[in-house]
Design goal:
Blueprint (H helix, E strand, L loop, with lengths): L1 H18 L5 H17 L3 H14 L4 H13 L3 H14 L7 H11 L3 H13 L13 H16 L5 E4 L10 E6 L5 E7 L17 E9 L4 E2 L3 E2 L10 E5 L5 E7 L7 E7 L11 E2 L10 E6 L5 E6 L12 E6 L10 E2 L10 E6 L5 E6 L9 E8 L2 E2 L3 E2 L13 E3 L5 E6 L9 E6 L24 E10 L10 E6 L5 E6 L5 E7 L2 E8 L6 E7 L9 E3 L2 E3 L3
Parallel strand pairs: 23-29, 23-30
Antiparallel strand pairs: 1-22, 2-3, 3-4, 4-5, 4-6, 7-8, 8-9, 9-10, 11-12, 12-13, 13-14, 15-16, 16-17, 17-18, 17-19, 20-21, 21-22, 23-26, 24-25, 24-27, 27-28
């Protein structure tokens, strides 16, 4: 937060100083050059690129402006322009630019040319290059390891197909952080577009503030409808989506409130019954937020487990700047102490996002560790025999040598949604639907299910409804719902209805179940039913409400 304020102040004062000059363009060029250097030091990549572009508009061959502009653009993920500028800088053969081969390698990574990236990165290392500036401390060896991974994955691409969600969802700026409900009919995401609340731009980078948006699936046409701004969740500043709960009733939000913890925290909001009508966001109370950044959060089906990413150093071991943590619910209002998922999941680098599949046992997360093929990649791990399996890189082209950070997958595992920079995009990051018909990311051979999860390969269905106080006829009741396999009598899952009596459970389809509903002051109620399933598309959903009678 302090860095953002410092950069905002720098933007303001430098603009006034430049405006006050009435001398030659050389003075303006000098000021822009100094500004570009300062922005690089502040890690304001957009600002550095913009300052350099002002010089290049007057002198396209300026070697320093090409060099610094390239570093700004490459770090800002504007790879095509970055490649163009670093190529110009390399052609100038300026001996001051000692890291030119490194940045050529990074630029070739950005445009997905692995062989050329390897050539330049190796050449940089052979000349004694070790740790260039403006690289977050990453060394050539770090990138060479990722390039080896890229070479391997690109040689054996997975069979998937991408479809841009088009202008109904995407805009010319960043559209990221897609999150899907278990029923697959609501897609919530973060967007930077001029039609945000307040119509303002962040002075730090000159781009629109982020807002949270939602698109509904037209189940007749199979197309996503025009995105709607969730106005009750957004302000004139930044709000970003973390996830939407499987039942679609809760949204987790990233907010950075300066007079709160001083870092990005987890907030949440609950719907009033309509997916566009939400209560006012509140901080998510419990052992989650800290004075460090919490960048991602999601609730597992049944509401008993909560996964989140935090940069906190407490609760050692902590394996990198950002690690994935998990917290279990003690009761409706209390949580256990968060547990770090450990070295098998968390690398010595950064884990930055996490989502859990509606089956309750498969997590997908983004990491820039040495198993990545470049920047952040999406990985998968399964909960098997009371432990997490070794994470698996989802492979190329789901992952590239750029950054893949946000990923969500449908209940049937047949399609996913990912934010990516691709040639067919409308601008920067766009949201794509990915056809996974020939790529099984949910079922894992030989895995065994535990209590409360759906076995691998089984069809996923949904049981939902409301527990009602029978004496009132309308008011919801907080109750504990326990589901049993009707054939074996074994407990499958236990969960609670919320304060409004609503409950939502994902279960294996095409099976018969028994349920018991228990609530203080009410008679215990039992029921038995058959839960169907669908082989594809949105999952089969059974709605059942129960009226409780007083003892």
């Amino acid at each position: 937060m302090m860095r953002s304020l410092a950069v905002s102040t720098l933007l303001f004062t430098t603009t006034i100083f430049t405006f006050g000059q009435t001398g030659s363009s050389n003075k303006k060029g000098f000021l822009n050059m100094e500004q570009a250097k300062r922005f690089l030091q502040e890690e304001n990549w957009e600002g550095a690129a913009s300052a350099a572009e002002k010089i290049l508009s007057q002198n396209p061959s300026h070697p320093d402006a090409n060099y610094m502009g390239a570093m700004g653009h490459i770090n800002a993920k504007n790879y095509n322009r970055g490649f163009e500028l670093i190529s110009n800088a390399a052609a100038a053969k300026n001996k001051k630019h000692k890291d030119i081969d490194f940045w050529m390698g990074r630029a070739f990574m950005g445009i997905q040319n692995v062989d050329s990236a390897l050539f330049y990165m190796n050449r940089y290392k052979s000349k004694g290059g070790k740790r260039p500036n403006y690289t977050f401390g990453f060394t050539p060896d770090y990138y060479l390891k990722q390039l080896e991974n890229a070479k391997k994955y690109m040689a054996t691409p997975v069979k998937v197909a991408f479809k841009n969600l088009g202008e109904a969802v995407n805009d010319e700026d960043d559209d990221v952080a897609p999150s899907l409900t278990a029923e697959g009919d609501l897609l919530i995401f973060t967007s930077r577009r001029n039609s945000n609340i307040g119509g303002l731009s962040d002075p730090y980078d000159g781009r629109p503030f982020q807002d949270i948006w939602l698109s509904r699936l037209d189940t007749v046409t199979g197309k996503w409808r025009d995105a709607e701004n969730l106005t009750k969740l957004n302000t004139s500043g930044h709000e970003a989506n973390m996830s939407i709960s499987p039942d679609g009733n809760t949204v987790f939000i990233y907010k950075n409130v300066s007079d709160n913890s001083g870092s990005g925290d987890i907030w949440f909001a609950k719907t009033k019954g309509d997916p566009t009508d939400w209560n006012r966001p509140k901080e998510f109370e419990g052992p989650f937020n800290s004075t460090y950044f919490e960048t991602s959060a999601c609730l597992a089906p049944g509401g008993k487990k909560f996964f989140f990413v935090s940069e906190r150093p407490d609760g050692k071991p902590s394996y990198g700047s950002g690690d994935i943590w998990m917290c279990e619910r003690l009761n409706r209002r209390e949580w256990k102490k968060p547990v770090n998922l450990g070295a098998k999941i968390n690398s010595l680098y950064d884990e930055i996002s996490v989502t859990v599949h509606p089956n309750g046992k498969t997590i997908f997360f983004a990491s820039n560790g040495e198993k990545s093929m470049g920047g952040y990649d999406i990985f998968r791990s399964e909960w098997v025999n009371d432990q997490w399996t070794e994470p698996v890189n989802l492979g190329y082209p789901l992952n590239t040598m750029g950054d893949e950070i946000h990923f969500t997958i449908s209940a049937d595992g047949k399609k996913a949604f990912i934010a990516a920079i691709r040639p067919e995009g409308l601008g920067r990051y766009d949201i794509y639907e990915v056809d996974l018909s020939d790529y099984d990311l949910v079922a894992v051979e030989g895995s065994e299910s535990g209590k409360g999860v759906v076995p691998s390969g089984a069809g996923l269905s949904i049981l939902k409804g409301k527990i009602i106080n029978g004496t009132s006829g309308t008011l919801g009741a907080e109750a504990t719902i326990t589901v049993f396999d009707a054939e074996t009598g074994s407990e499958v899952i236990k969960t609670d209805s919320d304060e409004n009596g609503l409950y939502f459970i994902t279960l294996e389809g095409a099976k018969r179940y028994k349920v018991t509903i228990e609530a203080e002051g009410f008679k215990t109620q039992t029921d038995e039913f058959y839960l169907g399933k669908r082989n594809s598309g949105t999952p089969f959903t059974l709605s059942k409400s129960y009226y409780l009678q007083t003892q």
